[in-house]
Amino acid sequence: MKRSGSFLRFAGGAVLIAVVACSASAVEPEPSARGNTTDRLREQALAGDFASQLTLGGAYLHGAGGRVRNPALAVYYFRLAAHGGSAEGRYNLGVCQEYGLGIDKSLLDAFESYSAAGELLPEARFRKAMLLRKGIASEMQSTGKVRLGVEPDPEAAQKILSLLAEAGYAPAQREIAAAELRAALRTGGEEGLRAGKLAYAKLERAALRGDPPAMRMLADCFRSGVFCRKDSEAMFFYLEKAAAKGDAEAMAKLAFCYETGDGTAPDRERANQFFQRAAEKDNPMALAKLGDYALLEGNLTEAVEYFQQAARLGSGYGGMRLALLLADGVGIAKDEQKAAASLLEAARAGSSDAAYYLALFFYAGRGIPKDDSAGLYWMKRAAADGVAAAEEFLRRSRTTSGRGGVQGK
Q1: Across the chain, what does the average pLDDT equal?
Q2: CA terminus-to-terminus distance, the chain
Q3: What is the pLDDT of residues 254-307, one digit of tens each?
């Protein structure tokens, strides 16, 4: 079978061949599209044509080709391809399972699907290696039984990635280069500088092969001047290239460039357009930023919805903003317990500001049992990350410690 030739990208840089959608159960497909009494594409899909199954699944997933977006129907056709023996179908099923697209997230199921896709699909081998590198935790099944996980095997993962990189597979080249860049930064000195420049050259080759995440990483290098010159225009150039290929994170970063005038002339309208495009791809940074925009415009309900979506996708900033609205009952019913829980999750996700507000909640016993030790812990975390208000709080607490103030030791 010929591959469909259409590629999409999703979280983590995963490439979705042709289309992606899944469901835990089969769904009877609707009789026709655009109100027609006959649907040639549907007939071909039900007759077992892989390309039609994948194409139809993609149409329902994205609401394209005159079809209403319906992930459940996308699932039906996608599973037909996978169960019929399509390697692409099995791989795409794995991506669904890995990221919870239309189906309960299960890394173990994803691992099995990638393995079933066989050795001919570099995309499947790559995703399998990425899972092997970190290992997979045990999962609770719907029956209540525990399904044992997969132990981390970085050596096996590296072997797969190396073979793929040698064969010219750009995502594998990018991952190897990124790991070597991180190692070079840890090493430091002349040795780290030499290793970093070699790793940068590998990343550049992956970008030249058209890998959007590699382009985005190059942009990050130019922004910070890591193992290359600091160049905001070069940063902008690579973000544009990655965004044009559908990389959601690049779109969000490009939007920030337009908003701040970094590497280009400030353009609020273009910034909003790219934030919107990134948000449509469920980028948490973009969703949180649109929440800020809505808040500034007084659209409180819309702001809450954006922050909720961002928080669900792991945005610490989005979770922090949602918590503050919950705490004061702005645009949503006041609920200090939910606010404290959202702050805790956001702080654990890495939001320094959330850590600061969480500390204040612990000190005040607001929505959470009063705990000065926990408050001090999170305040120190926030201060270590450079939150000025946290640094000032600790400074003042030290000067009053002898008079019953918070101990900032």
Answers
A1: 87
A2: 67
A3: 999 999 999 999 999 999 999 999 999 889 999 999 999 999 999 999 999 999
Output the pLDDT for position 17: 53
Dihedral sign (CA 173, 174, 175, 176): positive
* Pairwise pLDDT comparison (203 vs 7), residue with the higher score: 203
In whole angstroms, give the CA distance from residue 203 to residue 213: 10
DSSP letters, 258-308, are: HHHTSSS---HHHHHHHHHHHHHTT-HHHHHHHHHHHHHTT-HHHHHHHHH
Query: Which letter does DSSP use for residue 146 in this model?
Result: E
Distance CA 180, CA 196 (A): 7
Q: Which helix (H) or strand (E) holds 17?
A: strand 15-17
Domains of the chain: 7-118 (1.25.40.10), 319-409 (1.25.40.10)
56, HSE (Cβ side, Cα atoms, 13 Å): 29
Cα gap 80→12, rounded to integer Å: 26
Is the distance from CB of 23 to CB of 77 less than 8 angstroms?
A: no
User: Alpha helices, DSSP H only, in 121-187?
Assistant: 122-134, 154-166, 170-187
Backbone angles phi, psi at 396, to 5 degrees: -65, -35
Could you tell me the two tokens for 401?
Answer: 């410690």
pLDDT tens, residue by residue, 47-83: 999 999 998 887 887 788 889 988 788 878 888 899 9
Cβ-based burial of 173 (10 A; exposed 0-12, middle 13-18, buried ≥19) = buried
For the chain, how long is the longest CA-to-CA vector?
83
Structure tokens, 289: 């930023």
Asked if residue 78 lies in contact with residue 92, where contact means CB atoms within 8 angstroms, the answer is: yes
* Number of Cβ atoms within 10 Å of the Cβ of 193: 13
